[in-house]
Amino acid sequence: MRQTSLRAHNLALVLRLVAASPTPISRARIAGASGLTRATVSTIVDELIAGGLVDFADESRTGVGRPSVGVTLAGTRPAGLGMEVNVDYLATCVIDLAGQVRHREVVLSDQRGRSPAAAWEALAAPAARALAAAAAQGLVVHSGAVALPGLIEDAVVHVAPNLGWHRVALPARIGDLLVDFGNEANLAAFGELHACELSSFLYVSGEIGIGAGIVVNSELFRGTRGWAGELGHVTVDPAGKPCRCGSRGCLEQYAGEDAIREAASLPDAAELVDRAKAGDEATLASLGRAGLALGVALSSTVNLLDLPAVVLGGHFAPLAEWLCPPIEAELRQRVLTARWSSPLIRPSVLGAEATVIGAARTVTQAIINDPARYLASIRP
Amino acid sequence: MRQTSLRAHNLALVLRLVAASPTPISRARIAGASGLTRATVSTIVDELIAGGLVDFADESRTGVGRPSVGVTLAGTRPAGLGMEVNVDYLATCVIDLAGQVRHREVVLSDQRGRSPAAAWEALAAPAARALAAAAAQGLVVHSGAVALPGLIEDAVVHVAPNLGWHRVALPARIGDLLVDFGNEANLAAFGELHACELSSFLYVSGEIGIGAGIVVNSELFRGTRGWAGELGHVTVDPAGKPCRCGSRGCLEQYAGEDAIREAASLPDAAELVDRAKAGDEATLASLGRAGLALGVALSSTVNLLDLPAVVLGGHFAPLAEWLCPPIEAELRQRVLTARWSSPLIRPSVLGAEATVIGAARTVTQAIINDPARYLASIRP
């Protein structure tokens, strides 16, 4: 038992060092950083190579002396499948252990009024295509993670207001694949955390609904039950427009995708960027109003959470040019610390794909966190 | 070196078990829970007794068999001095290691327009009286902690809007006593955490200003720089009343002590409870408006932070009877999770003293966390 857990510990320790290194890392440096002997490191690296988790890479020359062979995360075998069920689309993506996106697909399809069972059924086909695409590249998808725009606890969606779901039990599999579920904004924040250089930020996920993921010192802040970050239901006008959630004046009613599109009198939100670029007055007014509402809600959030940066994701990312000025004006006025420490506002690095990439990344990250468990699971 | 740190570890381990036990705990049970030998436990307990940190107490009979002598935190020697500089009063208190309040004093005195230096000078006399009162009871005050209604970092107050302080360097001592500084709402939340049975809650500190302390799983959430919890500057009406912070429509302008008093046309906030009990219409209307504003701001906070409970502290505690109904109505309407998990709202257990008790408690808790360091500091 002790022997087993020591091996598990050492596998995880070595793999973590490989994953944290931006360039291939030599076994000698792994030994130095881990305190393990070079012989132990070599044995463990061999085991990780046999399991398809790491590879030898080009020699890493970082100083004087004899060049040595470096070890890097393998992009050749284990992979994760990310899926997203959102209000007006389904998305899938496959990422390998090295974090590269190896397959992606978005299916535009309105989920409002559809039953959860119909949504799983609709997801089965793109999921199967993703598995086939992974297999064609020699990848083996270990498991899947599905992002939902709702509050989830113990395999139950309590509520996903914009899907119209209430108390929905979640399946253990999509097709034949084992799947986990998570909140879309939290998963997007997780994806962004691994793609950008910030370690503390509020990730704002703009879709039909608006959610947020709170990252403090590289950790997701989930609240006591995992329901933190419901930015879309922060009140910006107590007597304002009614919201699907039953409240009034929620941020979503001013800055959600439908709200911006309707105020701009556009039939399709995809036209927003072009219309804004063309200087269409109704579009610019709608974006100004959305930016002001976002600025009010984000100021309250920064006052409560003390976060140094806000990342605009989802449909907010391509609209950042027009949203940032009114957001920044509100932050300057309303954030108590703005005078000496103004929060940075910027668009997401991953854009609309942050959620589905973040979902896939939870699968590969779980393998990196506990390689012994993964290796046991693939043993024939 | 190893020997020294092992001793420090064992001292802390034993003292933590004693502190966590609601009744006196026997050395045999300490040995069982810590994995230390009974001989080691006896040596460590003797050392803790010599340092005045624990005492033997009445026999603890918790089962069949021979009764054994229990160990409990000592209330006889080390103590902490808590101090508070707030807008219209100064407060001090002494607590012993067992958590008992051994001295308390509140001096009503308006600090607005006073210089920080004048505030330290004004604090020196009640601090000296507290030290004398402690000495008269055989207690030795180890150090002090001062609560301020502002944003503090590295011994500088960036801003304390209601004191009118900006970029104030903090002194290392008040009189001859070494002191630390902290945000008043955070310290009040820390005090309340040790006095109530909740482990996750938002502590709302109502004074002239309004602050909050965020407690998640028995830990204070401080944000990235310790500035989290600025509930008083959450916007409840974007176009509302101007606030001292430079913004508009901040919660403070509707539910701060001055705001409630002025809207009730009272010269003194101390009359609020009596007027409300007497059914005075202007007072009830003002409390209703404050409750509504609190309900809006707290709903946004719960949506963002996923906290299961809100504790009303400071001047809100005695007003809870009138504030709770409108707060609860807003939470029911505005909190996304309220339909299946409604947040608990209740007044603070410690009331107006939470802040100064919490400040004093940081001193005694630091001793409990690192007894070896304390014992080294008192060695003659």
Automatic annotation (TrEMBL), chains A, B:
Superkingdom of this protein's organism: Bacteria
Pfam families given in the database record: ROK (PF00480)
Gene Ontology MF, one: kinase activity
Keyword annotations: Kinase, Transferase
InterPro entries xrefs: ATPase_NBD, ROK, WH-like_DNA-bd_sf, WH_DNA-bd_sf
Family from the record: Belongs to the ROK (NagC/XylR) family.
Record-given protein name: Sugar kinase
